[in-house]
Amino acid sequence: MTELKAINEDNFVDAFNLKLADGQEEFVSHPIRSLAQAYVYREQCQPFGIYNDGVMVGYVMVIYDYDIPEYDIWHMMIDESKQCNGYGSEALDLVLDYIRTKPFGDSDRVALTCNLKNEKAIALYKSKGFEETGEVYDDEIELAATVK
Predict the structure, then answer these.
(1) Largest pairwise CA distance in the chain
(2) How far apart are CA 33 and CA 40, in angstroms?
(3) For residues 98 and 137, what is the distance between their CA atoms, to the nearest angstrom?
(4) Separation CA 48–CA 59 (nearest Å)
(5) What pLDDT does 26 receive?
(6) Rounded to the nearest 5°, which phi and psi values hold at 77?
(7) How do strand 70-78 and strand 2-6 relate by DSSP bridges?
(8) Residue 20 region, left (φ>0) first, then alpha (ψ -120 to 50), else beta?
(9) Distance CA 24, CA 14 (A)
């Protein structure tokens, strides 16, 4: 069973030990960088370990942008040894359920960016209702969805 668990002093080292597959470094930052950002934005974000049967298989962070306002999904990744098992899809459903609780603010908009070359991730996001917004940032496109 896939579940999200907040990153804390008990499991942050497990996040550090997650590995990206060769070539994926251009698609997503390692959790070490993301956890540094989580510390800076600690009043408006929540980093999660993605777990399956008690083992951390991935990482994702939810952050709230008060300026827009919207929820953003940052740095979602599945460990190279656990990819292609549906954990990313299940985790994204759980992240969207979490956002529906409005933990940081009242917005139904969820956005993320994805590398243009990451076709698998783009297909996953689109299968969950995300659509391209037309915004492009260097080599990444923005996708957004509405959650109620």
Answers:
(1) 40
(2) 11
(3) 27
(4) 6
(5) 63
(6) -155, 150
(7) unpaired
(8) beta
(9) 19
For residue 69, what are its two tokens? Answer: 């306002």
Contact between 116 and 125 under an 8 Å Cβ cutoff? The reply is no
Length of the chain: 148
Closest CA to 77 of 42, 112, 36, 127: 112
pTM of the model: 0.92
Arithmetic mean of pLDDT, 105-130: 95
**pLDDT digit string (tens) for 21-46?**
776 666 777 677 888 888 898 999 99
Beta-sheet pairing, 2-6 with 109-115: unpaired
Burial 99-136 (b: 16+ CB within 10 A, else e): beeeebeebeebbbbbbeebeebbebbeeeebeeeeee
Tokens 């060769």 sit at which residue?
A: 22
* Strands 109-115 vs 140-146: parallel, antiparallel or unpaired: antiparallel
- Residues contacting residue 37 through CB under 8 Å, at least 6 positions apart: 45, 61, 63, 74
